[in-house]
Design goal:
Blueprint (H helix, E strand, L loop, with lengths): L1 H7 L13 E6 L2 E7 L8 H11 L8 E6 L11 H8 L3 E6 L9 H7 L3 E4 L3 H7 L1 H8 L4 E9 L17 H11 L4 E5 H7 L18 E5 L11 H5 L4 E5 L1 H4 L2 H8 L3 E4 L2 E2 L2 E2 L1 H11 L4 E4 L3 H9 L5 E7 L26 E9 L2 E8 L1
Parallel strand pairs: 3-4, 4-5, 6-13, 6-14, 7-8, 7-13, 8-9, 9-10
Antiparallel strand pairs: 1-2, 1-3, 11-12, 14-16, 15-16
Helix pairs in contact: 3-4
Length: about 375
């Protein structure tokens, strides 16, 4: 099942609005075929796994399939996976977790009705973590927001001079652009926009010719007075979105942005700042964004976490120490907080990336 989970993650960002699913076919405790859902509208993991078996001249009859999510039992873009398992003569199916979608659920019962043995709940938590995005889409109108932060060992994200220089290693930089390739929007705060002048594009090597760059989204109460000065507004103004206050959205600066094809969205207030949930919901429905990558500074990051909008945290630790108390911190904006009020996370994954370490976390 662990292998099936690893396979499933390879479809992250391409299967939406479907979940990521992985499957392996096992004979005598050895994996003989495998597959995962690679892209929305294409074969599901179970059918990909069976296709891999045919390619390898492996007869699936009487074998066991491990699959991270309950096989679907309805006809959508593709036929039901339960039918494929029954027709292939699979003897036993081991399921990570049940399908929360009532339209597709019922696969376990159908398999049992056809004499196939079924076991549910193997590595259930990792399988639930795998479909956290899908679960969110089922219960809310928000995209799945990934908060990315890169910091030194002492938690600094830039020098006190705020020069736009890399914090992490080249391998981590490349990983971030792989993440950008899988999201519909890259979101930053106003401080990052004005200090770094980022383009917010994906510069991953080997992008397909028809690749569409993610929207560049800036959350700020202060709109730029001179749009052509900024890379995002100079190079692709029609793919830029500014989330701002209702007052700023009625300003002359907002009119200048709209004349260039840039969207300006007013947001309601929240605790002295902006309520981001409304803006993210608009990204989901107006721009068809199922994922966002949030890359702002410390205050923006903390606002996302406190408003419960950071669905996943990817924290890159680089083995350097600045030791400068005046340098900006990774998460900032709270004062005089006792340890009992700390924001707690659980670690999903830890991996080395070049000279850095990447932590993938979720809020507890």
């Amino acid at each position: 099942m662990a292998r099936a989970v690893d396979l499933a993650y390879q479809g992250r960002g391409a299967t939406a609005p479907n979940p990521c699913v992985g499957a392996v076919l096992v004979r005598d405790d050895q994996i003989v075929a495998e597959g995962w859902h690679t892209r929305y509208g294409q074969l599901h993991a179970e059918r990909k796994c069976l296709a891999d078996a045919r390619k390898k001249d492996v007869d699936p009859k009487g074998l066991t399939m491990f699959v991270t999510l309950e096989p679907c039992n309805h006809h959508g873009k593709t036929p039901p996976c339960t039918d494929a398992l029954i027709e292939a003569g699979i003897a036993r199916v081991v399921v990570g977790t049940r399908d929360p979608n009532p339209v597709a659920a019922g696969g376990v019962e159908k398999l049992l009705e056809h004499g196939i043995k079924v076991k549910v709940g193997v590595l259930e938590q990792p399988c639930l973590d795998l479909v956290a995005d899908f679960l969110l889409w089922q219960r809310s109108h928000s995209p799945f927001n990934i908060l990315k932060m890169a910091a030194t060992l002492d938690g600094k994200i830039a020098s006190s001079q705020r020069k736009p220089e890399p914090v992490s290693c080249p391998e981590s930089f490349a990983r971030v652009h792989e993440m950008r390739a899988r999201v519909g929007a890259v979101v930053i705060g106003g401080n990052t926009f004005y200090a770094d002048d980022p383009s917010l594009t994906c510069r991953k090597k080997g992008l397909e010719a028809d690749f569409v760059q993610p929207f560049g989204v800036v959350v700020t109460s202060k709109l730029p007075e001179d749009p052509p000065r900024f890379a995002l507004l100079r190079d692709r103004p029609e793919r830029a979105i500014f989330m701002t206050t209702a007052t700023a959205a009625r300003s002359k600066a907002a009119d200048r942005l709209r004349q260039r094809g840039t969207s300006v969205w007013p947001l309601p207030g929240h605790s002295g700042g902006l309520s981001l949930s409304y803006g993210f919901e608009r990204l989901r429905y107006d721009c068809d964004c199922h994922y966002t990558l949030c890359e702002g500074g410390g205050k923006f990051a903390l606002a996302l976490i406190e408003q419960k909008l950071a669905d996943e945290l990817v924290h890159i630790v680089t083995p350097r120490i600045l030791g400068d108390d005046t340098a900006p911190a990774a998460y900032s904006g709270r004062e005089h907080i006792p340890m009992s009020k700390a924001l707690n996370f659980r670690i999903l994954k830890t991996e080395a990336c070049g000279t850095d370490v990447i932590l993938t976390l979720r809020s507890k």
